[in-house]
Write a structure and sequence with these properties.
The structure is a homotetramer of 427-residue chains. The first copy, chain A, has 427 residues and is of the alpha+beta class. Helix content of chain A is 32%, strand content 13%. The first copy, chain A, folds into two domains: 155 residues, Four Helix Bundle (Hemerythrin (Met), subunit A) (Up-down Bundle); 235 residues, paralog of FGE (formylglycine-generating enzyme). In chain A, the strands form five sheets. In chain A, strands 12-11-10-13 form a four-stranded mixed β-sheet. In chain A, strands 1-4-14 form a three-stranded antiparallel β-sheet, with helices on one face. In chain A, helix 1 packs parallel to helix 5, helix 2 packs parallel to helix 4 and helix 2 runs antiparallel to helix 5. The radius of gyration of chain A is 22 Å and the shape is globular. The first copy, chain A, starts with 17 loop residues before the first helix and ends with a strand.
Chain lengths: 427, 427, 427, 427
């Protein structure tokens, strides 16, 4: 028997904590909520190798629960479909071979309908499992479920970033949703927040969930510095463009200069000039460029070049983490505001949300870093080369997914994520 | 006013011939019939640059009527959607820029539903037009509608060839239809049909419809020769494989040798060896290889190498056309048999249908060839380089679409179409 | 003992014919004469995959004698170097594996000096062989030597075509020779030569040497037609350019249109516009464009598009062969004139030499064509797909290498050879 | 007048310091000494985009003196050749456009002879300049000459690394020199050198020359750790291979895993298995693999995977710099030993020389880093993304070119340089 007994027929485990289940239900629902505005036709798009089709995301996060939770606790668990381990594995080599990433857009089957059925099945099995495990296993279960939910939240971010890119290559420029509201248009001067150097601590502390890459907490040596309290705006970036920023090699990393010339980059990814006016493709369709909103979809190369042009630099990861840590609440323009686009900074500053902040810190393990055991160890550690750290979350990040110690990472050339520029400088 | 008055309110034209309309309705219905077994998810697949998504085919053939018929007769005709001329133009440069072919799989919008609405709209407009044009315009209309219907039939073939390839790249190997019947399994010895050489005539004759590339009818000089009365079978081709045919450079055109080694071709496209047994992916799913069925999905290079190995050659176009012309009826395993796969040859021979026969004739204009005027002139002539002629139709060709003088053409490396090998030799 | 006894110690064979040796010496000398103006540095260039380094040509033609002559007659012949069969084999799969063509430019060793030593060695062995074989073998020897010499002459053409391209990619635009004289600048109106259609004969006849692809002589059916008695000039082609010829899709084969847009072709290969004036890179360096000289380095696509623009067509192979056959002498601007560039047409016409004439005939075997046996069979037959026939020789062809039945072949996109446009039309 | 008066006719500058000239002469001579064993044919090879032809190196380092020294002090200096700024500029965008790097192998002109003449000319002008500048300019001159000489020394390293790769792609596997001696074959157990953590200082200190990227000297926070006193040997690396190291994804960075599978890496770059025995291509030709020599031509990915397999890690830059700084002398197997290959470690340890040590430190600017002004600012800073730091010099590094603070950098995938593995671990 490969599936668990139904919840009705079982005493629930002593360790059972309803909060885990209710969080499970809530997070899982958000993924489907995100996909609600899509036509079935939209579910299969893969515009570039970096993006995945929405239906693949929906299935992959379910496969994660099957593989790292259900099969872990029930050795007799029979996967929903024998081939799903092949087609919905993303990069976990320890659990077998996988379908090549660039071909995810070729998977018309399973259909969207079948994938929703798959989700239903996994959800039902997960409910039974949570009711069924005994108290000795509960901590392990809670950890694995929490990891799976954080994993799904990461894919919720990606779903929206990918949907945006996938739709953007269509000459019809369809909006993901045409009912999005725009953020208020306020002007906000930059204020600089200072910090004295010396030995500080960074990295995850406390009992709450964190990914392995946020640990161990450790000492860092910092210099006196200050950070801008908001992100660079479209208007400010326009001045860089108008000054010929994309034509001055001295502003660019050599690899970036090669890239922007090979690809012909002369402005941010989703900008287009229509009869002399800049317009921007957003999840709400094409809009006039709002000069006061943060400039978004920056590659590291563009962020770094802009900072050099303006005589500043990007923040270090530690500098930014400490500043985030100091905020009283994890508050900002996240997924829940419903803008799905970066908003103009509030007078009190712009720290969490809106756009992932590029740092000048290469993504590497902290001193003493140890990956998780087994397949879960493939989650973070193996990406610790060639990428840069980003901090703070963005306008498509679920608000309960982020924290000061959170380490996101992208390649310097990536610009389809929601990424922006915060300036820093030494004192 | 961009659309025609509805048929109810108009006297029908004097020239009006109901047969044109009924043929229109019949041909248009077949395209949709072909797509019936598809999930919406399948409509958007483009597995290789040569194939197109089914939804693109459905829209493109409708765009053809809008552009070359509706807009031609009604200068005030307003296209259904202003961007469709861009996204559903295939290669008609004279009517404007077009969406790049390799990106057809990225068009999630218009949705499948919208494309069916588009078809409804075009059909209604076409009905009105046929009722409305006056007698002077009737011949022009009839020609253009007939061209459009022949065009749509060509895409019906392509729809099935493309669907097959598009689904075949899915690791789940889904069947297009699981209810297909297989053809009878008879053994049929080859009989050779001879013809004396000398000056003969070829090319389209008579009043019936033909494409411009089948004209003018002209004289050709031929040699004494004979043709096999059926196609080469899987069993016969297996002997070539088992003899190391794919490893002997002397059998191959130089370009073919390079190709099969770069691509690692060692057997026909859809074959796969499962535990030592050959199996074949078909529109009905994976089946055991039937040794008596014609070997299919041959590139020209494979067909030519096989013929060399067996000490024969491929037929010339003229040789094959004359033999086809001699058959009493255009009869064979076409789309209507419902096999959607080549069938074993009947004792009386196998001439039309089953598989397009590669010839050793390069596709070029006949002496005195003149393309049609205007956009219709882009139909055939501009492809007259680098391709080879094929004759006879195949198991997914509508039976009323083919004739002896019909000239199909593919690149020597193409093997996703339904193509096979017929042998010939000089006497 | 792997080498032949020296000529001094041997009676020469009865069959010995001094003319073969003297022709051998003469042809071999020309290859080295062609390379005389090169710096050692120039010998190793391979600018595109189609061209080969001069040193590779020099060695390859010698390897041909080692492999198809010396080793054939002396089973104990020990090759000069055990690895040369690998690195100097061009495409003869029947004699073993070979170094990849795109990597020929990587062979700094053997050095130029060593390659000349290799040539000396092969020459000495060939002399001994010619003195040594007995009369029964003489005919076979004479055939193979003649084949080898014709092969070397083909590479002499290629040497000059390749040197031109190899040097042209250098920003210094070095001249191959700075002492070349230019042809006279005469104006010559076109005269059209007519021929009545009907059944004619073409293909090689008689005892003289020909390649296998020129045989068998056979009948062809032709139509009434006429040919221009000279090639299209730069001035005439400029009118095509100025009329937007490169921007009109209706003039181009579809594959050509794709190519010229991908590659950005807007004028012939070696043209460059310098301050509004057209200049042309030649083997004599950069020169002002001479409007009366034939336009050269045409791809088939350009030749075909030009002919369509001017309302004519390219000649068929048979049409051109018969016209060449009618000329009293094989006379024209060949290698020996020393121009190394096409010359202005003489009033009496321009048939042989100057530029290879593109025909509209796909390169294929003549009816009944049989390749030579063994490795020599790899010479021609396997290239009979995807290429077009060219006739008449060019300004870098040795004059005793060409004849009416000679069939050259290039891909439609090739434009680094000396190729030009002759017009034809039906009557 | 574009050149300086000859040294004979001038009083030498007051500031004139003969040691600068004699160092200039000595360094310049080494570049030519390195090229002495080359045939002219070898000077133009560019086997991969990362390597440059030896003749290009010889000219480029001279162009550096022309551009950053001669033209700087004499505004009327006329470059030796007007096009050399285009063809011998490597990446200095501030001084103009440049020939594309992948095409350096196409420059047969200027010839090797002309490039030696160019060197003679630059040397003569440099001598005159050093005799001519007045005392106010002397410091600037001395700095720029020293920078140019250090630049040339870097290219001396590259010359030998590039020559090795360029020759290695030749199937003849020619030796660069056949008279190289091999290092002694001693066995040396690893000893671990410990260091207590805390705040330390790193970066260049003192008056001596350093590159801008070695400054400013700054504090770093370190942990208790220890470093192996010698490099990993071939024997040790073989155990990794034999244990399936190249087949275990868990050992590899994700980007490395993708790379080794795409490229089929299963052993170090220059290793080849000949009849079951490992042999290695060296600058002295193919040799039996010496198990006690350091494993060389490691990519970062391989070094990192090996360290993970053995349960250690790579050193941080600071850890290694401090250890190097502690050595009494900069002593080791450098260019001057004449091995041109890594040597077996001596009992007292192996710190400088032999092989560049990969660190786990991403190449970035030190806190407060400021690039040099003008074109010299393009020397280092713009490469500070995507690369890793290496320390210590190697067997082709001139011994007076290296120091503890020296920062070399390569991409994680690079393996044509002389790179090796040193292990580290936390205490």
């Amino acid at each position: 028997m490969s599936t668990l007994p139904s919840t009705e027929t079982l005493d629930t485990s002593e360790a059972y904590d309803e909060r885990l289940l209710s969080r499970y239900e809530a997070v899982r629902a958000v993924s489907e909520l995100i996909c609600e505005p899509l036509a079935i036709d939209d579910y299969q798009l893969q515009s570039i190798v970096e993006t995945s089709p929405p239906k693949w995301h929906l299935a992959h996060v379910s496969w994660f629960f099957e593989t790292l939770v259900l099969s872990h606790f029930r050795k007799d668990y029979r996967p929903y479909h024998p081939d799903f381990n092949y087609i919905f594995n993303s990069y976990y080599y320890t659990v077998g071979e996988m379908h090549p990433r660039p071909k995810r857009g070729m998977l018309s089957r399973p259909t969207v309908e079948e994938i929703y059925n798959y989700r239903r099945h996994v959800d039902e099995q997960m409910r039974r499992l949570m009711a069924w495990v005994d108290s000795e296993q509960w901590d392990d279960l809670a950890f694995r479920v929490t990891l799976g939910l954080n994993h799904e939240q990461q894919h919720q971010e990606l779903l929206l970033m990918d949907i945006k890119h996938n739709l953007s290559v269509n000459p019809l420029l369809p909006a993901y949703r045409s009912d999005l509201t725009e953020s208020p248009v306020l002007v906000s001067p930059v204020r600089w927040e200072e910090r004295a150097g010396g030995v500080h601590e960074m990295g995850h502390a406390g009992d709450g969930f964190s990914f392995d890459n946020e640990t161990p907490r450790h000492q860092v040596l910092m210099r006196d510095h200050r950070l801008a309290n908001r992100l660079v705006t479209n208007q400010e970036y326009l001045e860089f463009i108008d000054d010929g920023g994309y034509q001055q090699p001295a502003l660019w990393m050599a690899d970036g200069w090669t890239l922007i010339n090979q690809q012909g980059w002369r402005h941010p990814l989703y900008w287009r000039s229509v009869e002399g006016e800049w317009r921007e493709y957003t999840l709400g369709g094409v809009r006039d460029l709002n000069p006061n909103q943060p400039v978004c979809h920056m590659s590291f190369y563009e962020a770094d070049a802009y900072a050099r042009w303006v005589g500043k630099r990007l923040p270090g990861e530690a500098e930014l983490e400490l500043m985030l840590d100091e905020q009283k609440t994890v508050d900002g323009n996240f997924f829940e505001t419903g803008y799905l686009h970066p908003a103009t900074a509030l007078p009190e500053g712009q720290w969490y949300g809106d756009l992932w902040n590029w740092t000048n810190t290469s993504y590497a393990g902290y001193p003493g870093f140890k990956p998780l055991k087994g397949a879960m160890g493939e989650y973070n550690g193996k990406f610790m080369s060639n990428q840069m750290v980003l901090k703070g979350g963005c306008c498509v990040t679920p608000s309960d997914h982020i924290r000061a110690s959170y380490r996101n990472f992208y390649y310097p050339h990536d610009r389809w994520p929601f990424t922006g520029i915060r300036l820093a400088e030494d004192l």
